[in-house]
Amino acid sequence: MSEFLRVAKTFTAYLRRPDLYPELGRKIIKNIFNRKSAFKGKEKTLSWASSKAVSQSEAIYKLFGMNAKSFEELFPTELKTAQQKERECPIKMGGAGALELIYYSCEFTNAQNVLETGVAYGWSSFAALLSLHQRNGNLYSSDMPYLGQDGDEFVGYIVPNNIKMNWKLFRFADRESLPKIFKENEIFDVVHYDSDKAYEGMSWAYHQLFSHLRNGGVFISDDINDNSAFQDFCEKMKIDPTIVDFEGKFVGIFIKNQ
Ligand SMILES: C[S@@+](CC[C@H](N)C(=O)[O-])C[C@H]1O[C@@H](n2cnc3c(N)ncnc32)[C@H](O)[C@@H]1O
Known about the structure:
- By secondary structure, this protein is of the alpha/beta class.
- It has helices at residues 3-15, 21-33, 42-52, 56-64, 71-74, 76-88, 99-109, 123-132, 174-184, 199-211, 229-236; strands spanning 113-117, 138-142, 167-170, 188-193, 213-221, 242-246, 249-255.
- Helix 4 runs parallel beside helix 7 and helix 7 (99-109) packs parallel to helix 8.
- The model has no long low-confidence stretch (mean pLDDT 93).
- S-adenosylmethionine binds next to helix 8.
């Protein structure tokens, strides 16, 4: 699809969704006045993250004192079914991230309430829900679907039906979803950021998520190397995060007030 067609399709999809007009307005303003700032500080953070990075299992041991098993060992049947569903899905979205990191964060905190931004197929939702389901806890997710692809109905496609009762999905941009989620539940045990990857969007959401995370709760952000928002946030808040090298990308994680 040409760039022009992609933009036209996305724009038309926005027009059909009045609840996403505020995000459309923000995107237009950003593209006119602030195009380059999405990648602000990318080089600086790449060398910072590379110098600190450990593997997923090292991070789980260091932070939680747990020897992580892989999802293949923990949930072989559920994983195979989810992978099969991903293959069958007519819409192509991003693949699975650091599932064990999310799962063990929920186990470590005995999570009752987890908040995530960015769902797509639902791999991170799958990881959190497999832990939450054991305690009848709740996952609150914010996701504005890939509008260029008519992908609405496929958001969370790989999440098994038997754990969906523990899941509340808010289908708006984060700036609209998060206030709605905080009205339903104020304090969370784990927060996971994986939605808007622009500097401003990340910085805004990090402060929101941090202030609604309990002491001893776990903060995780995917793709921290797209710009320096995570590094700058941690430096400002005097947090020394653990950085996980995951398939060539970096994930940031820390326990609040530890
Ligand atoms: C990388 S994918 C999420 C992957 C997911 N966490 C997983 O593990 O499968 C990012 C998702 O965030 C959504 N998104 C992007 N910008 C957003 C925003 N401002 N508010 C809410 N969702 C957004 C995208 O539409 C997409 O579904």
